[in-house]
Structures are given as structure tokens and as C-alpha cells.
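quick one
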Amino acid sequence: MTKPRILSGMQPTGQLHLGNLEGALRNWVRLQEEYDSFFCIVDWHSLTTLYDKPEEMRENTRQVAIDFLSAGLDPDRCAIFVQSHVKEHAELHLLLSMITPVPWLERVPTYKEKLENLHIESPSYGLLGYPVLQAADILIYKANVVPVGKDQLPHLELTREICRRFNFIYGDTFPEPEAKLTEYAVVPGLDGRKMSKSYDNAIYISDTAEVTAQKVRSMFTDPLKIYRKDPGHPETCPVFALHSVYNKDQTGEIEQDCRAGALGCVDCKKRLTARMNEALTPIRDRRAQLEENPGELDEILTAGAEKARKVAADTMAEVRAAMKLE
Ligand code: TRP
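structure w/ tryptophan:
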């Protein structure tokens, strides 16, 4: 019995934060045990918005790789690689672009949002084609399952449509991949909104224990709880939401004491910080080791790309044959 295959990707837009860690990475770490796993740092995708920041992209790519490994992705169990190291993705992207109608792409909600949010008046060809490149990433490994957040569902649906169209025109080549949504507690940022790099409210995996403590001290709490004795409303408090992620055993007691006016925000934050730092210390230690050994990181990424390229090259041989291109 061969294991089903998963592939997922992450953009190197910056260092990863606790939302990425708890929302995606921890889940990937579990999945690598059960699946034949491929995890890709999609630097070409980031060029759709960061095309004028090559230095930044290069550094971000390394940092994300370090975050992957520190969180527990194991290069002996899965392939960890950089998209641009496996050129086959570009060839498949080009071929898929020939059978993808432009109106399918113009309908994609993330595309429309990007144009609005980033005030892009003259979108690039690459930005429009972003989901075609994502389809290539997935199909080139014949992935069965794609673990993603729900913001990615439209991209997955498009991948499936492109997959069916290819199979219909050229004969069965790719299995239809399925999205695997992860259930997890949403990690709130310092201001109570979703944790996000662009909101400037994130705690990063790379933050030290001191920086983490200081960020937690600055967090918003229940605005109606001014003194310790004021009854709090944990259901609206981002500090409490973080307790539910990092301090599961004590949430019942904390909830009670907060409501009863027996626990003040300062103490509550101290307890949270202690538990967070406990959970994050092993990750930070591995991070520091990898930062000190750039050669080791290069070797891991080279080996990951080789593993990925073997599969990708086989698929491309099949694709060229199906399309009568050899
Ligand atoms: N679009 C994804 C994101 O922004 C990143 C991505 C690129 C991806 N290729 C992928 C995710 C393939 C899953 C599978 O999060």
C-alpha cells in the first residue's frame, strides 16, 4: 500500500508568525507521518507582488525554511524545497496556461481582492495566472490531498477544473486533488484581529522570550475590565483566546477567575507568557542552531529539491507524451 500524497505551499512573504505555526505548520508536522509529503516554499508566487524586492525575497525564503524545520518538519520524512529550484513547475504552468480560460481567472476572489487592496491598476499577467502556477505545483506531484486554509478553496477548485480539462483533452493524467481544511483555534493578534503580518499585530516564531513577553504585555484585553475586581468577558478577550491555544489545561480556571474579578489582566498575561515561552523554547533553540549553520540549511533544501524533481520530471515526461510534445 502506498501512502496518499499531500502537497502544500507557503509564500515567503516574511517570517512566519504564531498564526502560521498553529494554523498550518503544526498540522503539516502531524500529516508528514501519514502521507507522502511535499512542502514547498513558493518563491515564484511571491514575485507576483514582491517582484522588485529580490534581496528581501531571498532572505525570506531562508527564514521560512528555517521556520519549517524548527517547527518539526523532518527532511527525512518529507520533501522540503523551494519552488524555483524545481524548474519543471514553470513548464507545467506554461502548458496549463494554454487550456485555462482567462474568465476563470478573472473570477477568482483573491485576484479581485488583491487588485482592490493593493490598488493595482495594471495587473501583471503573472498575477492573473497565480492560480495556474498553484495548479502546476499541485498537479506536478499528482497530489491527492492539499492541506490549506479556507481562503485557498477557490484556488483548489480552479486546480480541479484545470485538472479535469487536461484529463479530458489529453487523456487521464492527473488525479483530482482534494482540499483538506484544518480545524484549529484562530490565533488572534495583539489587537484582537486575526494575526497577520500586514496588520502589524503578530508574534513571530523568531521573536525572543523577552520580545514575546513584551508583546503580550501590550495586548488588548477586555475594555470593560479596568481593575482586577471588575468582572471580565473572556469570550471577547484575545489574551484568553491565546490561553486556549497555549494553556489549555488552565482555561477553565482562568475563565472563572477572570469573570469573578479574582484574576487581573497583568497576572493573566504573565501566566500566558510563561506557557507560550515554554512551548516556543524548543522551536527557538532549533531556529538558533539552523541560523548558525547556513550550510546545513542549503544541504537540506538541495536534497529536498532533488527528491521533488524526481517526481516532477516523471510527471512532465508523461505530460509531454500526452500532449505529443516529444
Ligand atoms: N496560494 C497559497 C497561499 O498563499 C500558496 C500556494 C502556492 C500553495 N502553491 C500552493 C498552497 C500549492 C497549497 C498548494 O497560501
